[in-house]
Amino acid sequence: MTGIFDGTYARGAAAPLVAGRGWLGAMLEVEAALAAATAELGEIPGEAAAAIAAACMPERFDLEAIAAAAADHVTPVVPLVRELRAAVGDAVAPYVHCGATSQDVVDTAAMLLARRALETIDADVAAAVEAAARLADTNRATAMIGRTLLQPALPVSFGLRAAGWAAGLGGARADLVRIAETGLPVQMGGPVGSRSPALAGAVARALGLSAPALPWHTIRLAPARLAGALGTLTGVLAKIARDVTLLAQGEVGEAAEGGDGERGGSTAMAHKHNPVAAVSVLACAKRAPGLVATMLSAMEQEHERAAGAWQAEWGTLSELLRLAGSAAAWGRDLLEHLVIDPDRMRLNLERTSAAGAEQGAGLGAASELIDRALAGLAR
Amino acid sequence: MTGIFDGTYARGAAAPLVAGRGWLGAMLEVEAALAAATAELGEIPGEAAAAIAAACMPERFDLEAIAAAAADHVTPVVPLVRELRAAVGDAVAPYVHCGATSQDVVDTAAMLLARRALETIDADVAAAVEAAARLADTNRATAMIGRTLLQPALPVSFGLRAAGWAAGLGGARADLVRIAETGLPVQMGGPVGSRSPALAGAVARALGLSAPALPWHTIRLAPARLAGALGTLTGVLAKIARDVTLLAQGEVGEAAEGGDGERGGSTAMAHKHNPVAAVSVLACAKRAPGLVATMLSAMEQEHERAAGAWQAEWGTLSELLRLAGSAAAWGRDLLEHLVIDPDRMRLNLERTSAAGAEQGAGLGAASELIDRALAGLAR
Amino acid sequence: MTGIFDGTYARGAAAPLVAGRGWLGAMLEVEAALAAATAELGEIPGEAAAAIAAACMPERFDLEAIAAAAADHVTPVVPLVRELRAAVGDAVAPYVHCGATSQDVVDTAAMLLARRALETIDADVAAAVEAAARLADTNRATAMIGRTLLQPALPVSFGLRAAGWAAGLGGARADLVRIAETGLPVQMGGPVGSRSPALAGAVARALGLSAPALPWHTIRLAPARLAGALGTLTGVLAKIARDVTLLAQGEVGEAAEGGDGERGGSTAMAHKHNPVAAVSVLACAKRAPGLVATMLSAMEQEHERAAGAWQAEWGTLSELLRLAGSAAAWGRDLLEHLVIDPDRMRLNLERTSAAGAEQGAGLGAASELIDRALAGLAR
Amino acid sequence: MTGIFDGTYARGAAAPLVAGRGWLGAMLEVEAALAAATAELGEIPGEAAAAIAAACMPERFDLEAIAAAAADHVTPVVPLVRELRAAVGDAVAPYVHCGATSQDVVDTAAMLLARRALETIDADVAAAVEAAARLADTNRATAMIGRTLLQPALPVSFGLRAAGWAAGLGGARADLVRIAETGLPVQMGGPVGSRSPALAGAVARALGLSAPALPWHTIRLAPARLAGALGTLTGVLAKIARDVTLLAQGEVGEAAEGGDGERGGSTAMAHKHNPVAAVSVLACAKRAPGLVATMLSAMEQEHERAAGAWQAEWGTLSELLRLAGSAAAWGRDLLEHLVIDPDRMRLNLERTSAAGAEQGAGLGAASELIDRALAGLAR
User: Fold this and answer.
1) Residue C65 — φ and ψ, nearest 5°?
2) Residue C358 above 80 pLDDT?
3) Chains contacting D with at least 3 CB pairs below 8 Å?
4) Most CB atoms closer than 10 Å: which of B124, C98, D285, D344?
5) Extents of the domains making up chain A
């Protein structure tokens, strides 16, 4: 939508998945899987399913026309199914979208997109964890001044700080992995959510998603949990990025973003080197909590299909996946290229010490804590 | 971004303004106005300004390339200015973006987009007010059961309900009008916000925006107020749409959305007639509060330019304008085509009455209150 | 704080836990456990620990004085420790709060409060699940009109609706149970988070909390996950309460809140019977998403202790636990006393049918789905 | 509620107004004003009104009992009116709460509390503006390094920074003043919002509030606008507090909080001097956006009285007024006692300069901009 800011908001591989064509493709995959599953259950002929699958090629569909026609139905599935029926011809048309309702397609497509987005996010977060763990491991004895309420406090190991980053990312990642594995159920409830679960099971197998105990058309645990875990991830990333912006201050100078020469330049000040990745992480992360709140507010859904709350989820979840993906990609970049300055850390520590910090406090437990953190990640 | 849902989220004329090309165009208008203003102040030659203005044609710029290159700077203005300098040639290049910083261009472009978006939103809201006022005026004596906590209470005039809708929309509109008139200031502070206000004044005249007392690079009153007013507008629209979904329930049947035959159909249930406009209003409106919260959170901005909070505003404000615009367009549609059923209102009232409501309660003050509401709108 | 609304917001047993005296008591328990743990590790004499434990009696502390003095330190722990040292006398005073920092006490107390609040919330949610499951089991064949976008759609089993409620509550409960069991870690990092984990382990055993791999002073996974799970719970409760308000409408009349005669009366309309429990659930639940957003925003914490974000958590988490507890208690009340009217359900269904719904659609899969839902709860 | 943190969250004079007894007192004032107004309109005897006014003494009412009994009605007004009727005796009892509904009392009391809270907030903000203006005026030529994205950029006047603070606070204050003057309407609509406006006018005069064109029982412009303005105020305060925490960093050392010796001490580190006021401002301000979002979400209100959304406002608005009041009081304290170090500013500037900043950039426009800002405040 606001493509000119995509450099900030849409880094990483999640963004295209949740764009218009990504959604279109996922919806068509759901229609194909539905046809295959209904054929498997003997509800439609196998040849019809094959014909439908063959027709579900997103490049043959007119995204703009579907989006425009969707307005008449508050769902793009009505025009999508109409186009799909036209594509397969009159003989096969009755077997398209068989017994399903629009929400089945949108919800299942959302879970499919989410799974793929989580895969790419997970790859970036895993690399970020590894980079943070490396910083922790190699900086066990790198002393810096610990700062509380932004005031100098006592010496601390930079490696321990980085171990905390790694542990936080590792924890957020574990939440996403659990959701990816068991928390993304297909929706195949039919018009009022009473369809037999056999179909849902077959579609789930076809798409590699979970089979829910019940249709969840107005019981929105799955999107709410997903949103919460994405919000938690961006929160951890924001902590790391905030630390880097503070360590990179001119007066502090303990860390800087690496990367090539062009990055971080200013239109007005040639001498500046901006912490581009950290700022981008923060730009994305600050947008997440409001979106999570929207997803939670939208759980109040009426009867068998909500009038407004469900429809509010679509764009919100898309944006949340996009921004979390961008934050993860920028965060990985940040950690993989972070350059620290141990001499400056020591200098700042000595200066502070003169001003009162008890230098004597050792870094003794740091290495033990780092070992625990790194071991925890391996689990 | 999620174009397949644009039928719901992007109705009305505000959406294209805040899309990528809309932003690109607005930024180029700002560069042209800046050139004209610096020429007016004698800082650059008049011919340079004319050459720059001539080059500021959005269709000649490569939006995707700019967005991609923006990643290296957390702002699209760096590559935009580079392209613009290339377009005007070496002799004029030094006069491009003269003394300005990226934030000057992005913030001023945001205000320009906002002003245009508010114009289109205002047209839709004004029409919605008129439609609601008409419903109020023609239904002064249309009795219905008033409902509190969703329980039947006492008789009330439907016209009074509609007068409340009109008054709410009128009030939200007044806030937007005040902001459009005096609350959208240019930003022309230069690198650290200390540039002389003369330039800001000249740019403001050129673009039809306000001239601020001071640069507001990290004092974010203007975007915060704008966000609040948009949130208030969508809140009023949500109230109206919620009422309509409730009045349109099968068991109530007191109102229905008009419009052509196709609209509101279901993929699974041919007999259904869905309240498409009301649901669309609610889908947009439910997304606004979280976005407003993000804008308010983003007011905590560091020193002379924020590291993250400012950059979080861009997409958030764009989305808020887009959704408020869509909600307004759908709300206008809803009110202009609303069909009410006075007979059913009376029938429901009589039934309730048998169950205990004091029928005697007159509608006496309704007409007086409606007169006050309609008079208030005229002001 | 706003005690006059406590009937709505503070039902259930969680509210007093997170009130001022609840926090005071929990902080003293942490000080006592810290003393015991440092004695266990040989850092302080056993008799000192015993004397400290004996002095940690909340009724002997002046809550208002502590709250007032806390202002000078942005933490109540400074005056609390001062009072505690005065209580134990000069000889023992040096052993109080040994090697700990304010955040250790506040964070560990928060986790302790959360565990107890979750216990009481869990009891209410478990009862609510059971009540919903009973409704599901006994209404397998109770036909009602399914409603989508608040329009009549196709027949559905009320038991299936209730099974969805039960499944949603059961899922939200599972999240809270997991957090209560392993997601509430003590914080014992000392001034800058580098203290040896042995102490944390000993305090965790003493208090029945988890021992974290690392201090989490600025890695806020634990409070963020807790907040997310509370937000999800209130979201499910809101769905149920919304359904009840809609079913209880005069024109629908398919459900009503039971309970004694007084409840639900109006100051102005004697005939009214308001759905008090459902409205109270909604009043609490609507407040949760904004609080969750605050908790997520607050994850951006600087260095070794945040300047503002951490301190913002205290009241927010308290309020969230209080409101989730109240929503759970009201939700249990709602479900345990819900009265449904199968005759009215059938009547409404027949009326709708005349208007076009396909009556033929059976409830066939409902019983199978209900079995799955109930089995899922048993796991 | 969480009294132990009141030192942080409840500074200033607004907090007691919105506590339980404050609400009780305000509701009784509304009942007294309602009695006086109905007497003025000849609806009840003058002596009855006098007897009611005499009985409206909050100290005679049992807050806890009212709060507990409120649960049965989702409103404290039912038990309050019952107690009030008992207090005036049988003869006068029928004239109590005459023709009003619970919402009339709660909404009008909320506006009354808000007006008083705004008065005290305004006093603190006005003093904060004055302190910031003084800093601006006396530091026109105090050079410091301007910082963008937390990187050193170009020299800037500290006075100009302070002028920005003053302008931001002045703008936020203007919004609150406008709301206090014309944006706090009484609510006197009776059971379904159709009562004649004459009564509202009389009550408005009695209480010094605005008389609305229409009852606004489900058109929630007034609370939404109030919430937005409070969110904007806390956003500006957060900007200032964030700047102070950054300037007060050990490595920067350009500003410090003044105040007495005790304040800012640590339990663990005797040498520390924490920026207590700035951290307290941030702790309050970070909680506001989520609360504003709740108020906006709550605008979606059904028919003539909402089932849940209205009831969610009570605690949210109370908390928002309390936190905004505390942030304002702490912000005033911060600005009135801020100590800046011009020598350190110059030193940091020179060091940065060696690293590349163009020292030549003058502070020329700073004084002109400061004049404009200060003149703008005088208006």
Assistant:
1) -65, -40
2) no
3) A, B, C
4) D285
5) 6-14+102-378
